[in-house]
């Protein structure tokens, strides 16, 4: 029994040792193979396998790892810088909007609109009622039977964010019966929208120079005189009563909107310039500006020098006067209306002036009033801008020629009734 047990006990260790021996041999073989592969790689790369070169290889690997880590860190820092920049842009835009909103709240009536509100009011910009150099204008239904005009400033037409914000800034500062008023604005999702007062009878240009406008009836002489007075009052307000003073820079018949046959409002303040002397240097000279305006109406002195002043608006008003008198557009072929009429209007013969009259009037014009309007046009269109009258003077001259006539008409009616 003892021997039998002994034999059994010996078999187990022998079996165990056999397994261990095989495992050892396998590990030894694998280790040798690994070492051989390593040596082959080192030999292929041109390194000997001594301890010194192992340290060199380790140093190279460490440098590579540090380079990768530094590159990753640089990419991370760049991404963070971009995020900060974009956040600042958002904050800057938000600050501008907050400033606008604070002005709006002080005015009381004007407010900001959500894009969806104005899209709904315009039925997704369906009914177009006007076109500008940088914008389209759409009819908006505001509820309770009220209407507005949404001016959609388009970046692809040159309507930059600066132009839009400048126009909003001007509209927030002004209030006059003969200026189109601002009701609100929207600056959202890339859209630049102004909600403006709706003036129902389109522009003076449409009324005088389109078939549809003329089919509504010809503007009488007294109509034209009253329209001239309203625009003169609007310009007098901008030049002398607004704070700071404002130069419109785009007076033309398409920017004169008709309330009715006798009354008008001046529109489109996208090219306005605030202040008369803001661009003057220390020695009193003005810095030339890029030319803004519409051909046929632009002040010739402004065209030559790039220097703009309220007298530039006076020149444009002189062209508008001649447009009302003659019924002609501001350009005649390649010639401006101011040049085209020069020989007639600078002649002192009243009969020559009568020949300039719009033939659609059939000669129904007051000759004394015609003389006043032609005199105003001549003084407004002189080459030297300093010699042109102020708008306050022009308002007085038009008023003085209208009021005696109105009084005479009342007197005539009174005598007839008796």
Report what the structure shows.
The structure is a single chain. The chain is an alpha+beta fold and 418 residues long. The protein has two domains: 93-197, Phosphorylase Kinase, domain 1 (2-Layer Sandwich), CATH 3.30.200.20; 204-417, Orthogonal Bundle (Transferase(Phosphotransferase), domain 1). 55% of the residues lie in helices and 12% in strands. It contains 14 helices and twelve strands. The chain has helices spanning 2-45, 51-107, 115-121, 161-173, 204-209, 211-215, 221-240, 300-305, 310-326, 337-340, 342-345, 350-356, 367-380, 391-417, and strands spanning 111-112, 128-131, 135-143, 146-153, 182-188, 191-197, 246-247, 256-258, 264-266, 273-274, 331-332, 335-336. The strands form four sheets. Strands 1-5-6-4-3-2 form a six-stranded mixed beta sheet, sandwiched between helices. The chain has a two-stranded antiparallel sheet with strand order 7-10. A two-stranded antiparallel sheet has the order 8-9. Mean pLDDT is 81; it is low at 1-19, 21-32, 96-108, 278-282 and 407-418.
Task: Show the helix and strand layout.
Elements: H1 2-45, H2 51-107, E1 111-112, H3 115-121, E2 128-131, E3 135-143, E4 146-153, H4 161-173, E5 182-188, E6 191-197, H5 204-209, H6 211-215, H7 221-240, E7 246-247, E8 256-258, E9 264-266, E10 273-274, H8 300-305, H9 310-326, E11 331-332, E12 335-336, H10 337-340, H11 342-345, H12 350-356, H13 367-380, H14 391-417
Parallel strand pairs: 1-5
Antiparallel strand pairs: 2-3, 3-4, 4-6, 5-6, 7-10, 8-9, 11-12
Helix pairs in contact: 7-9, 7-14, 9-13, 13-14
